[in-house]
Amino acid sequence: MEPECDRLIVEGLNKNYADMDEYPVTTELQNRCVNIIARLFNAPVGAGETAVGVGTVGSSEAIMLAGLAFKRRWQNRRKAEGKPHDKPNIVTGANVQVCWEKFARYFEVELKEVKLSEGCYVMDPEKAVEMVDENTICVAAILGSTLTGEFEDVKRLNDLLAAKNKRTRWDTPIHVDAASGGFIAPFLYPELEWDFRLPLVKSINVSGHKYGLVYPGVGWVVWRNKEDLLDELIFHINYLGADQPTFTLNFSKGSSQIIAQYYQFLRLGFEGYKNVMENCVESAKTLREGLQRTGRFDIISKEEGVPLVAFMFRGTTDGSLAFKLSATLRRFGWIVPAYTMPANLEHMTVLRVVVREDFGRPLAERFLSHVRMALSEMDLAAKGPVPKMRLTIELGPARSADEEAAVRVVKREAVSGHRSVSLVTGKTKGVC
User: Fold this and answer.
1) Could you report the per-residue pLDDT of 34-48, keeping only the tens digit for each?
2) Is the model's pLDDT at 302 over the cut of 70?
């Protein structure tokens, strides 16, 4: 971040975000950020209204809070109907980030995952809706899959789920995990419908420390309206001063990241964020084209989505190649993750390069150069060790009776004895 923001972060280290009475400006900055993000996501908020949301420690806490809101709302509805409320579930794709598995395990919610398939590396909306039942508290869609950066089709999911809700009267909602894509789609794909323009989308989380361009770790979660965040989940405390409502898993934490996020919103504005994202996309395009020119890789990520390139070795199921390339690139200073895909696609081993703001064309070209060098090293290693050679020098006969010096004959033989090479050079006598 810029030096000015670095100084603001240092100045905010001693300010407790949770103490709203002692540091009311921090609370005000958080509320302004929430309103900016909610309007960026097309929340139905009037000009004089305040959006509903909160700053969190990354998207992990944001997802926990959103999941709890869905669970409690589902439980209350089931209780009112006199039905069992002890077996909630969430429907997601198998490509979800591990924080969803954490939520399911920690808060006793079954995670029903839609399996991926060859050529489809995100959740299939039709299969997801088929898995929805009366115990489903929400369907979680990913705007920017961790595996490939692809945006899931939230619009299609909304339409299919609305039709099922009409038939069953279940009223199953949608949460959008926009940890990566939330600060990309509004600037690059404004016509893409994935946010609060879709009626079943009730909450969205986004990471400020990804493409929100802030240091780790800050996240955000916003709700469609106040009715989607139950009052019973909000705590009111007064032992720090005035009445303070709070809905977080963490309590005390520094104010620095909130201040930094607000700084970035003011400093860059809409056009600034748009320019940054466009530059990232151009760098990703340079990477994609360079990797394709090697003729060694298949690109499985799509151009529309998070600016990253996910690729795998072409024409082989030998996953060790990807891990070898990752290890070789690490020696050049690059940390490129290699990983196997989820269930049904375990035979696929993928490498992924995520393009950040500071990854411009010069770095992209350098990375491609190192990829080519790494591939050359791997190819040489695959041919086996270079045979050891024996070098001998023998004294040969003089070329003529008048010639006193002998001609040096050099023999170079592979230790294995497969071949020998003789070379006549110079006039020096000796043996080595």
Assistant:
1) 999 999 999 998 888
2) yes
Tell me what the mean pLDDT of segment 345-351 comes to.
92
Q: How far from 158 is each of 133, 197, 198, 423, CA to CA, in Å?
A: 16, 10, 7, 78
pLDDT-based confidence at residue 383 (cuts at 50, 70, 90): confident
The end-to-end CA distance of the chain, in Å, is 61
Q: How far apart are CA 91 and CA 86, in angstroms?
A: 16
Contacts 24+ apart (CB under 8 A), 184-188: 184/144, 184/211, 184/277, 184/305, 184/306, 184/307, 185/143, 185/151, 186/40, 186/41, 187/270, 187/273, 187/274, 187/277, 187/278, 188/274, 188/277, 188/278, 188/281
Task: Please list, in sequence order, all residues whose beta carbon lies within 8 angstroms of the beta carbon of residue 177, skipping any fewer than 6 positions away.
Answer: 59, 63, 96, 97, 100, 140, 141, 142, 143, 205
Token code pair at residue 45? 């908020």
Rounded to 5°, angle at Cα 153 from 152 and 158: 125
Q: What is the widest separation between alpha-carbon atoms in the chain?
A: 119
The confidence score (pLDDT) of residue 50 equals: 87
- According to the model, what pLDDT value does residue 14 have? 87
Q: Report the candidate in 337, 318, 341, 339 with the shortest Cα–Cα distance to residue 329.
A: 337
Question: Average pLDDT, stretch 152-176?
Answer: 96
Nearest to 392 by CA among 418, 420, 426, 417: 420
Share of the chain above pLDDT 90, in %: 69
Mean pLDDT of the chain: 87
Nearest to 354 by CA among 319, 310, 312: 310
Q: Check if the beta carbon of residue 30 is closer than 8 Å to that of residue 17.
A: yes
Closest CA to 312 of 327, 328, 323, 304: 323
Mean pLDDT of 3-14: 92
Residue 353 in tokens: 């390069």
Tokens at 157, concatenated: 């999911």
β-pairing, 349-354 vs 389-395, is unpaired
Angle at 388 between CA 386 and CA 390, to 5 degrees: 145
| Whether 90 contacts 109, CB under 8 Å | yes
